[in-house]
Fold:
Amino acid sequence: MKLKVAVIGMGGRGLFFCDVFSNNPRSEVVAVCDLDRKRLDAVRECLGAKTAYYQDSLQMLSETDIDAVVVATNDTDHKEPVLQVLQAGRHCLVEKPMAQSLEDCDAMIAAAEKAGKILGVGLELRYCTLFQQMKEIIDRGDIGEIKLGWVVDNVSVGYTFFQRRFKHRSFAKSLLLQKGTHSIDLMNWFVGGNPIRVYGTGGLDYFGGKESPEKTCPSCMARKRCPYAPAALEYEGHCGVTLSNPVSCVFTSDVDVHDNAMLNVQYDNGVRTTYTECHFTPEYSREFTFVGDKGKIYGYYENTNFKIRVSRRHKEVVEEYTPPFIGGSHGGGDKGMIETFIDACLKGSEFIMDGLAGRNSVAVGLAGDESIRTGRPVDIC
Ligand SMILES: NC(=O)c1ccc[n+]([C@@H]2O[C@H](COP(=O)([O-])OP(=O)(O)OC[C@H]3O[C@@H](n4cnc5c(N)ncnc54)[C@H](O)[C@@H]3O)[C@@H](O)[C@H]2O)c1
Structure:
């Protein structure tokens, strides 16, 4: 039996889901929805007449035989479609960040419980081989009980957020939600507790500036020597749909999100961690260190290049692992996420990126952002 999937939101990410679910032998894309008719017309050329096309998600849910729905709308617009899907008795996979408020996360979790359906959150890095192996090592007790940790997001590609609406708080709320949510989720997962208190500092120290909010690359005299100007205005996204590259200047005066942040996080199991996010590092990588009462684990992620080092107190031997890259996007995590989601919907098996995981990562991001703005520690409720 094939899983009948629908996708809401035909942006870059929604098109990715259309591509992978329509090419997976265990699933089919029976319907798609976007408010924008032009996006629907473009994707119709790829998916054809076997898929139904809607501008209204409620109409789609009432007219089509669907098992599961992916919600890949903008960060600001996750709640309504997720509630519609769950209230219509379908499984749901919502993209990260789960929401921009804890109230919205809680409403989604309550709706999933009431419906008895899966509510998954797109935190696919949990299925990357690096992080799977780190979790296995931690869970089998190699470093003992985790006491503290430090996590660093080196986001050389962070400039792309400043070329898009994410540079505005009114759209992104904070890059701790839009970007940090993945590594924060992994940190929460490894720690094995719920975050309860966050103290943070942060700044806007590289992007933003004095340029006019209207300034774009095509109109800029410096575009040929600017490292942030895209080489082309368009690119071919999944399903062969042409998408636009973002071109807003990264140095405009209207930027009001931070481009770096450092958070101290306390957990209900006594663990303490720090999380650092920087959007102007030369390299794009993630680093995770945890210290337990028996040893220490370090994990390094660079797209397809993974390393783990485990050392133990009073022992000279350092164990090194290089987990394989299995192919696919997001360190291979997307592959694992898709297969596990299909299994969970068809066979009732576990889907580890659940509503609580989504809520906990949002909670740290929101509390961190509030703490940066107020200068005070923020308790998570
Ligand atoms: N997990 C990941 O690694 C990952 C990667 C990229 C994006 N994302 C997330 O995926 C989501 C989508 O990102 P994107 O880059 O594709 O965005 P996008 O802006 O390119 O596309 C969003 C689409 O949703 C449509 N839309 C908005 N509200 C709608 C509604 N109520 N009903 C139907 N359609 C609606 C818009 O018209 C638009 O076409 C975001 O939440 C983003 O954070 C996650």
